[in-house]
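# nightly structure sweep
# worker-07 picked up a monomer target from the shared queue
# config: single-sequence mode, recycle default, output format = C-alpha cells
# input follows
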Amino acid sequence: MRARFSNVSGFSLVELMVVVAIVVMLWTLTYAPYSYYSDVAKVRISAEKIEQAFSEARLSSSMGLSVPGTDTNGDAYVVLSQWASGVGLYAAKSGSGFAPESEFRLLRAVPLEKGIEISRLPSPKVTVKFSAPSGAFSAVDENGAPVAFTGGTLGLHGAVSGTLSREFRSVSAF
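# output follows
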C-alpha cells in the first residue's frame, strides 16, 4: 500500500505564475532604457570611428604613406557617402589634384555600428584628400567641385537630430 503524505510542501501553480509575471514585468521595465542607452553608445562609437579614420589618413599622409602594390608614397583619401553605413580609407599616388577613384587602393574599410548611417553631409558624396607629405586637407563632392567640409551627422537609421544622432568632425575642425 502506498502511504499518503499529509504534509506535502512546494509551490502551487498559481504562486509560480505570479512569480513569472513579476519577473516579466521587471524585465520589460529595464529593457527600454537598456535599448536606448545601447543605441546612444552605438552612435557615439560610430562618430569616433569616423574621426579616427580622418586622424589616421592625416597621419598616414604626413608620415609617408606607401600606396599598396607600388613603391611610391601617396596621398590618403577618406570617402563618405550619405546614407552609408561605413567609410573607406584609401591611398593613391601623390599628385597636384584629386586622383580618379579608379586609382584608389583600399587601405581599410571602416564599418559603423549596426543600424548607424551617415545622415547629413554637404553633398551626397564627399571625398577628403590628405596630401603627402604635409597632410594638407581638401575635399570635393561627387562632381569634383571643392566643398567646405568640416564634418557631418550620423544617426540611428538616419536620424538627423536628437539624442540618437551625433555630429562628427573632420580633422581640419580640431
